[in-house]
Design goal:
The chain has about 120 residues and is mainly beta. It contains no helices and 11 strands. The strands form 2 sheets. Strands 2, 4, 5, 6, 9, 10 and 11 form a 7-stranded mixed β-sheet that branches. The termini are far apart.
């Protein structure tokens, strides 16, 4: 079991930056793949970025590639999402999720943090 708590959301102007953090409980954080998802009003939740547990390979949605960077600090049980060159269409609730090796599925979710980008 792992519990996830996101922070770092807020209001920013277009072109600005934010860094989201996701703190995880538990002693096996390094064995989880981690991901960031987002859900805008009236839309389905979508994948934003992911990072593996092993070699920390990273994956991004085409819409954020080159602007967002996911990283993890296993010593701090924390995963980050650095968001640069933000656009109004990035406005959404951002969720952190964890995928254990036993299922390879994002079984654990945080409560979400709001990101609003003004034009």
């Amino acid at each position: 079991q792992v519990q996830l708590v996101e922070s770092g959301g807020g209001l920013v102007q277009a072109g600005g930056s934010l860094r989201l953090s996701c703190a995880a409980s538990g002693r096996t954080f390094s064995s989880y793949a981690m991901g960031w998802f987002r859900q805008a009003p009236g839309k389905e939740r979508e994948f934003v970025a992911g990072i593996t547990w092993s070699d920390s390979s990273t994956y991004y949605a085409d819409s954020v590639k080159g602007r967002f960077t996911i990283s993890r600090d296993n010593a701090k049980n924390t995963v980050y999402l650095q968001m640069n060159s933000l656009k109004p269409e990035d406005t959404a609730v951002y969720y952190c999720a964890a995928a254990p090796r036993s299922t390879f599925a994002y079984d654990y979710w945080g409560q979400g943090t709001q990101v609003t980008v003004s034009s």
